[in-house]
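Question: I have long wanted to understand how a fold can be written as tokens. Here is the record:
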Amino acid sequence: MNIFGPIFELIGSLGFLLYGMKLMSDGVQKSAGEKLQRALAVLTGNRFMSLLTGLFVTMVIQSSGATTVMVVTFVNAGLMTLTQSVGVVFGANIGTTITAWIVSIFGFNFKISAFAIPMFGLGYFLSIIKKGEFKNWAEAIMGFGMLFLGLSGLSDVFTPDQLGWLFKIQGNGPAAVLLGFGIGIVITALLHSSSAFSAIVITMAFNGLVNWEMAAAMTLGSNVGSTIDAILAAVGTSADARRSALIHVFFNVFGTILALIFFKPFLSLVMMLTPGGANSNIAIRISMLHTVFKTLSTIVLLPLQNPLVLLSKKIIKDDEKTKPAAYKLDFTELLTKDSSTTHIIQAEKAIADMTDAVTEMFDKIQIGVTKRNPEFVEKFREESVHDEDYLDQMHEQITHYLVKCQRLQLTDKQLNHVSNMIQIVDELENMSDSCFGTIMLICRSIEKKMKFQQEDLERLLPYIELARQFLQFIRRNINTQLSPEKLDLAAELENGIDAFRKDLKKVARKRLESGADVKSELLYIDIVRAIEHIGDNCFNISEILVNC
């Protein structure tokens, strides 16, 4: 037990630390994080505003990895441009240093258990008594308490008497620096948290298990290891989203290489800026190193924002314009960096894409009515079969994704939003069936050389145009909450379509009674009915969007 006891204590303390950080970050994100995350998409007008937004959001949610994952998701969803994302990524890297300062200031200047245990207890009882958003803040308080309980355990176990024989890593010179650098990369990538590893390094240094140079090298290595979350989040995304992740890697790797090249002068600068210099508290010194490194890297690279964007575009080519044969929407879980909002926004992006696909399919109806010739059949029949199959795949994949979203820790508002999105996807799929059926009817009428009066076809065009306007209305508002005024506009469009449908069917019946071709008139009525169904689907979506 003399050997295994400290190791088990280390595992337990590390679990407290990591879970405490996750609980704290999740609690903040569930209560205020959604507003902060949405702000990322709008408060990024210029590079300095982007920088400040990324800095502030990361300081609040205590995770640069989570912020970077959000940024990649927003770029992929088209809510943020690649250029805007650069400043946010830079700001997030500075914001993450706040954790090291909290640990170094509070973790070693007070008896941790004196406030960690009461904080956890306070958070727990608040979570029982209160509900709603306050319950999420209670979770964050519990996480804060667990974080420092884990830190207390690490402080007790990371001593020469306990684990000094296993973890004592000392040394100077290039070999020692490279060793510490490699350890920082590997452990941070495994933990998925540079903040957690910084807390471990600070604890080991404070207890004398690592010297100043080794701690500095491990801290620099953690900056490279932390890029793993951005890389994983970028898998299967758009070209710009992958470029955003690549720029994050550029930032951390380039800054780290510079710091390693000028390692001694860099450490001298850190000691000069730290009160007390070489005699200062090593925990404070490591926090200062973290902050100085991130700040200097930003000062050097922020003016190079445009060249970095151009370089990323040279490395990662634009997406192919052709539609893939199969649709795939993967639910990528990122361990401690999972955010319900990033998953929801990814689903919103997929629904917007599905709306675009339905709109493109509907446009073929208008072409078919105006140009009833064999070329239409030749060009659009097989293409429409592929489109219908592709939209069926979108329906299945997006619904499956949203069902997985429902298993996340969602607020009541988010849960309602996800449920509404599932209904919207169903309506879009029904709409695609109507579009496909109408295109096939047009193709059949052309192949069988059915005759229609020109004036009858001309009557269809304003009817189809009204339905197209309704579909464009849905396309513009698909991921926003509709105001009562906009719902009134949707009702006007729906009523207009219904009125048109009655007139067209009345005219078609009169033609039947006067001896017109039965097959042609019934097919004409089927087309009118299909367009009406599309209008019904659009209005159903409008009513759902009111409650989003």
Observations:
- The radius of gyration is 30 Å.
